[in-house]
Amino acid sequence: MTTIALKKPTAAGRVILGILILLAVLGLATGIYRLAVGLGATTNLSDQYPWGLWLGFDFALIAFGGAAFTMAAVVHILNLRKYEPVLRLAVLTGFLSYVSVLIILVIDLARPDRFWGFLVFSNIHSPLYEVAWCIFLYTIVLALEFAPLLFERLNQPRIVRALHAAVIPVAIAGVTLSTLHQSTLGTLYLALPERVHPLWWSSLMPLLFFVSAIGLGLSATILVTLIVRKVVGREPEVGVLAGLAKASVWVWVVYLVLRIGDLLLTGKAGYMFAFDTRSALFWIEMLLMAIAPIILYSMPQVQQNKSGLFWTSLVVTGGLFLNRFNTLFSGEPVLVRTGEVEISYFPSWIEFAVQIGVLAAAALALYLAVRFLPVFPEAKEV
Amino acid sequence: MTKYGVLVDVGKCIGCHACTAACKVKNDTPEGIFWTKVRAYERGTFPNVQVYTMPWGRCMHCEHPACVSVCTVGALQKTPSGPVVYDAQKCIGCRYCMVACPFGVPKLNWDNPLPLIQKCTLCADRLAAGLEPACVSACPTGALKFGDRDALLEEARGRIKGSSYVNHIYGENEAGGTSLLYISPVPFEELGFPMPAQEPITRASEIAMSITPVTAVAAVAVLSGLYWVTKRRSKGVKEE
Q1: What is the complex's ipTM, to 2 decimals?
Q2: Which of A:324-353 have CB within 8 Å of B?
Q3: CB contact (8 A) between residue A77 and residue B102
Q4: What is the model's pTM?
Q5: CA B224 to mean position of chain CA atoms
């Protein structure tokens, strides 16, 4: 059977794995505690800030998981076989991102005992209803795209062949579902014109969320590929990553034109140059998420350089996380705006513990998958 | 069918809290949770102070409720007779209604490990029995008046005309119109009322949601087409 001769974890590596395990266990413990005593006792959420760290992270992680649908489209739909070497890792990234999202979503619900409600009750006007269904179905798609790795390892060639036969319909279903829910996460905010700050609220939000998910999908693929390759001690295929970087330049150009153009055409230029906290956050977000990749990914010195690709991809990831958090927190709750309630929100340590714990568990799962599953196509050569 | 409303006259309220107590007793709301409150507003400086009180923090029972539009499982519903009701059995606690409401109405009893959304239901069960909401029945001054929404609008215009009241019926068009209608001798902004747009809040999201099926079909079609074209092209290259 094909196994990979991985570098044994160094002492430093073992320490990191140990820390991740500790964080995951802490997350599990605090998560169970939250389920036992409720949100009021464990979070700093309030009537004015009912959505906090967990949902903010979820919305950002969903975009990070866009690595899977972006690469599935590139390889299977557009038939660009050159990028096949990074596809499995992109699918794995997506699968782990979405499973993390689902866990946090259930923990965040005020009634986790009723998490199945959306399967039985419906509201076709609700963006969250559509998002719930799409995430549910898409996680199944991701499992089907991930399954060949598992069954190759378990030496089940017939199941693997069956899965491969379905790869195109599954890919089309996955990209369709992703198109729907990545854009509907933007639609979610269309319903909140009083809650979202004018610099972020736009009638184009569905399109902006979709485009930025593709952009982050490309950077997430680059980032995870570089990190994993470094950990297992194998050279990444820089030429492939350079291609992804170059493509994402155009994605961010489209995003920037749409976003800035919409702000100008709707008379919001004043907000951009108001020299207040919001405008500062806006420009930092634009710089990290869109302007940095357009400039840096266009440079051959960055495209062909592991370090340049790594740092630029990290910056884009940070920028997009900032964008999702800005959209969520930029505006003022109505009762704070009218002065009736004076309250702010900062996550409690339990909110941090659960979130970090889930991310640590995902990182551990990634490590185990890379260690024991044929994630790399050249695994056969060992 | 009658569309009900409640006319709230800020000038008539004496701040007795009978409405608060009646609602609390009738609905047995959790400790610290009130589905209707009374707000006091002081205008001027001592000794020339005027105090205004008003029923406050109540569900406005909007004509096009944002909460109903966004509720993930449809637990919140607008009834034809006016009240926006809440099915506690369906609620999954996603709290979308809380961020969506332009009046900041829905609350949560956070202390309970299994909480539910808390808001006025306009005593829908009392209405079904031909009674008025508990708060309206308890009000000694008639600051709360229950009836047909259109008739109440007419009455409100009548009370405003020739008086020192602000020439605006709060709720006539706010958020697309609400069942709760306020009239007041003091400007609403000064009293601290939220000032939402004069149109339904969730128009944009509902339009976007309505094109979901078309988007899904179009996506499948475009992706299938792209696959077919790129497959043919690569086959062509292989055969050469």
Answers
A1: 0.94
A2: 333-335, 337-340
A3: no
A4: 0.95
A5: 44
